[in-house]
Amino acid sequence: MFRTGLRRLTAAAPASNAIRPAFFSASASSSFAAPVVAAANPPSQHTLDVSSALGVVDGFVGAIGNTPLVRLRHLSEQTGCEILGKAEFANPGGSVKDRAALYVVLDAEERGLLKPGGTVIEGTAGNTGIGLAHVCAARGYKLVIYMPDTQSQGKIDLLRLLGAEVHPVPAVAFDNPMNYNHQAARHAARLDNAVWTNQFDNTANRRAHIETTGPEIWKQTAGRVDAFTCATGTGGTLAGTTRYLKDVSGGKVQCFLADPPGSVLHSYLSSGGKLVERSGSSITEGIGQGRVTDNLQPDIGLLDGSLTIADEKSIAMVYRCLAEEGLYLGASSALNVVAAKEVAEKLGRGHTVVTILCDGAYRYADRLFSRKWLTDKKLIDAIPAELQHHIVLP
Ligand SMILES: Cc1ncc(COP(=O)(O)O)c(C=O)c1O
């Protein structure tokens, strides 16, 4: 359906992203010739990897997707399973939300809602705003962001420096007409050539993962995937990837929702569909939900189960991934890795479990690596003693 700029996204994942045997022959399909290597100096594995890397992509949009699928070595050894993380932090805007941002904009273009010079409006305090800021700049649109005024100045500054017009508004509940999402919708309705992209209930978000994330995972594992798990914010990633993997495997891939404290979806699923009031909170950002969004609704019935992951486990995994794997991950990614480990333990040795590494820890470092913040959150003791030397901020 989406044609513009998605050639690389919808193309089969390149050989460089597939799980490779230890030695493989360099592919001749690369756009660039392999580097010349002196005959006396046989090519190293690294040279072969470079020679089969992707060719040129078209701008920011062309660089979205086809992220590596990273085998987490320590957790794989520990569980006797293959634990694989989709490295979404490698998207050009730095998170999994680049995919959704691109799809909601392309969807608005295709539906004739957005023409050159138009305005995109969204309610977001996080990665979707960052993804949209890049996509809008790359495609020639203005971006207006509404967010609750409880968000840090750092987030406002970041979106402004990326070119967005930012409106921090009082933090009120969704059923209040002054909620930031409703204000975003009204702003779009007031303007010509403007669209409220509505990431929570616009299913172009879910479609990004049906058409890109799911097929990439299937291709990268050569169809050898037993389970998939991740947390939900809008639900686009979980729903779309689950839909694709269920369809392509004839229902064989087991899919699990991973929930942080303060989200209602684990209890919704385990109670057979009872929606309770939200209570509690989590240190994770971008995930946790109080309702079944339109993105999640069509696929929630496909799920095989759900897990709830305590903040103590997520924060410890932030530190483990850094120390053991060299991966500097945000807390939602770490929660997903804990969920993948728990799913692997439930399935038993010999299975392949895939999860999402949503973003890096860069935007969260002042909290996740601060002694004061960890102490205030009563999480300092959750960090294993041998990893506490990473807590370098006061
Ligand atoms: C850091 C992070 N992780 C996970 C998610 C959840 O992704 P989705 O909205 O597709 O459920 C988000 C969404 O904003 C996010 O910012």
TrEMBL record:
InterPro entries, sorted: Cys_Synth/Cystath_Beta-Synth, P-phosphate_BS, TrpB-like_PALP, TrpB-like_PALP_sf
Enzyme Commission code(s) on record: 2.5.1.47
Annotated ranges, domain Tryptophan synthase beta chain-like PALP: 63-359
Protein's UniProt name: Cysteine synthase 1
SUPFAM superfamilies associated with the record: Tryptophan synthase beta subunit-like PLP-dependent enzymes
Alphabetically ordered keywords of this record: Transferase
Gene responsible for this protein: CYS17
Cofactor(s) demanded: pyridoxal 5'-phosphate
Domain of life of the native organism: Eukaryota
GO MF annotation list: cysteine synthase activity
Class of enzymatic activity (EC top level): transferase
